[in-house]
Write a structure and sequence with these properties.
Blueprint lengths: L1 E7 L17 H12 L3 E7 L4 H8 L3 E5 L5 H14 L4 E5 L1 H5 L1 H8 L3 E3 L4 H12 L10 E5 L2 E3 L34 E3 L8 H6 L3 E3 L2 H13 L4 E3 L9 H13 L5 E6 L1 H6 L1 H9 L2 E9 L3 H6 L6 H12 L4 E8 L8 H13 L3 E6 L7 H8 L25 H18 L4 H10 L5 H15 L5 H4 L5
Parallel strand pairs: 1-2, 1-3, 3-4, 4-5, 10-11, 11-12, 12-13, 13-14
Antiparallel strand pairs: 5-6, 6-7, 8-9
Helix pairs in contact: 1-6, 14-16
The protein binds cobalamin (B12) and iron/sulfur cluster.
The site of iron/sulfur cluster has 11 residues, from helix 7.
Amino acid sequence: MTVLLVSPTATTGGLEMMRKGHQVFQGILYIAAAARDAGHRAVVVQADVNNLHRYIRRYKPEVIGFTAVTAVYPMVREMILYVKEKHPEIVTVVGGHHVTFMYKETLQETGVDFVCRGEGEETFAALLKALEAKNRYPDITGMVYMKDGKFYNDERIVLLEDINKIPRITMDLVAPESTFTPKIVSSRGCPFKCSYCSISAFYGGVYRQRRVEDVIEDIKDYISWGYTQFWIHDDNFTTDAAWLTRFCDLVEEENLKFTFSCMSRINFIERSPELVERLGKCGCTMMSIGIESGVPEVLESINKKLSIPQILKAVNILKKQGISYTFFMLLGSGDEFDTPEIFDKNIKFFSKLPGLVLASILTPFPGTAVYEKLKRENRIRHYNWEDYDITHCVYNPLGMTYKEMESYLPKAYMKIYLTKWRELPSLFIKALKTKSIEPGMILGSAKSLFQTYILKKDFYKSIRKTK
Ligand code: B12
Ligand code: SF4
């Protein structure tokens, strides 16, 4: 079959909008690779509702698949409605974090033929096989459809049993005018269960690793294609010390020359300083680390499983390394700690930390514990999904207004970066040298703060979404 897979070119609020261009999402590449390996013709394009028709004309697909996180779902909905109206003969499928949880609403409001719940490599290949055999209503758990008002195949979120079997993603899967960037992934899921996190909801605490040798093979492939800088996409790359030790052994044995950034965790850094150092020697230039709060009660409430002494110890270890680091900060926990006093305390804590800080506002993504709680308490303000972009406050906080909470985002950036202004030039130079952030992100943030504080413009206008 001919399959068109769409990575939406939606630009959401938050730091993502400051990135240079769009990247093709990894999930949809895996789906394309699975379709290709099952003998189908698959191509990934970056599209929106304005140019999708061109790709339909060019590739004449029998099946179109879309991917959607919450903030881009409205745009994907638009595209599905367009295909349903103009090309009803094409079978439509949508997958990703948002629709995995909101499958009923998605099927009802878009008329999409199938919603993939969970990881789709195997279920999508099975669907294509069934469609080829003219079976329009196949019995494939995780490939949900609606018939006569009833939902089928929706009993659970499907996860792959063996992620070592995931197909290889290659550049030729992507249409010539779309941008391919290397994607390295060594594991899926995360063993932790932070209350606000879509990962813990989607994977349910299940954590699976790939063989070290296979990841090294991927890196060697990319190096042979001319890439030497990577972002390892794992949610938590530094989970397993034995795996990482073997990884470093192989990088050294094979004398591989590349640099990478990854997401890590305080508890790993604090427990394994030698391994952090070794990762630095093996090419790690940047670690992004979720601290979220410097207030113990909040850490406890969001189930972060971190203490302040652990954070401070890890920060001291990082300071001695050559690796750059970015800390994530969360404004809001959805409970009684959403007060100005707690927020001020948190901002003060982050102002004293070295390194870059990326702040966001608590967003209740469907499926998460926070979403369920706020929904139960009737405190979700609206379901305008495009605002579920980690910069808007979409719920009613207990200790302040939602507007007040939103005003804390630029305030946090302003206070934190003014406090550490002396450190800024060296931080930015280091981050730019290692390409761990894009120049556009620094310029974009500075512009937005200037517009908000000096020109007194609305903060959201200053980070306006651009197409
Ligand atoms: C890397 C990353 C990014 C990168 C993307 C780089 C790239 N080109 O891949 C960047 C920085 C651009 C980014 C941006 C954002 N991200 Co992000 N990102 C991630 C991260 C860490 C990895 C994504 C990934 O590659 N996953 C691995 C793949 C294999 O999994 P997958 O995408 O879920 O796909 C599988 C299934 O869902 C399913 N599937 C998915 N699509 C389809 C389609 C079909 C047809 C089928 C059959 C199946 C299927 O099968 C796939 C294969 O198994 C995830 C966390 C995570 N683990 O997913 C967060 C995550 C996806 N991001 C998130 C968010 C919030 C954002 C932003 C909104 C943040 C912001 N405001 O700036 C933006 C949105 C960008 C956009 N326009 O869509 C949230 C989404 C939560 C939610 N429910 O919406 C996540 C889950 C992080 C989190 N902990 O909460 N992100
Ligand atoms: S926030 Fe990080 S550590 Fe917590 S569950 Fe999500 S990926 Fe894991």
